């Protein structure tokens, strides 16, 4: 399944969206096109999560092997609905100040 040039691969299964090789530097196009609850992004060249605030019902966000990702400050806009956040192998990501905005487990 392909949506214009926003991403190369997107697999929809069990209400999760898996995105590989995002061709934009942010998520403005990706998050505008569908009602996302669970998003898994890996091996893409995105630099920021700008646009993710459009996914107001985001519950799970998985960021894997994103070598260009430097800015995840947009997570603060979805923090109230976010239940799961996993960040792995994002070497340029240095600012985790948004973490205090996430709900505490069991709260």
Mind sketching the topology for me?
Elements: E1 7-13, E2 16-22, H1 28-32, E3 38-42, E4 60-64, E5 84-88
Parallel strand pairs: 2-3, 3-4, 4-5
Antiparallel strand pairs: 1-2
Describe the protein:
This protein is mainly beta. The chain contains one helix and five strands, in the order ββαβββ. It has one helix spanning about 30; strands at about 5-15, 15-20, 40, 60-65, 85-90. Strands 1-2-3-4-5 form a five-stranded mixed sheet, with no helix packed on it. β2, α1 (about 30) and β3 (about 40) form a beta-alpha-beta unit. The radius of gyration is 13 Å and the shape is globular. It starts with 6 loop residues before the first strand and ends in a 19-residue tail after the last strand. Mean pLDDT is about 75; it is low at about 1-15.
The ordered H/E elements are: EEHEEE
The rough form would be described as globular
Structural class: mainly beta
- What about the largest sheet? 5 strands, mixed
Spatial order of strands in the largest sheet:
1-2-3-4-5
Per DSSP E runs of 2 or more residues, the count of β-strands stands at 5
């Amino acid at each position: 399944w392909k949506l214009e040039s926003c991403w190369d691969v997107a697999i929809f299964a069990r209400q999760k969206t898996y995105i590989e090789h995002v061709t934009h530097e942010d998520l403005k196009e990706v998050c505008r096109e569908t009602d996302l609850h669970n998003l898994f992004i890996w091996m893409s060249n995105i630099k920021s999560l700008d646009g993710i605030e459009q996914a107001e019902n985001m519950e799970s966000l998985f960021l894997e092997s994103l070598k260009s990702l430097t800015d995840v400050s947009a997570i603060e806009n979805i923090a109230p609905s976010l239940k799961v956040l996993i960040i792995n192998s994002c070497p340029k990501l240095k600012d985790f100040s948004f973490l205090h905005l996430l709900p505490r487990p069991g709260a």
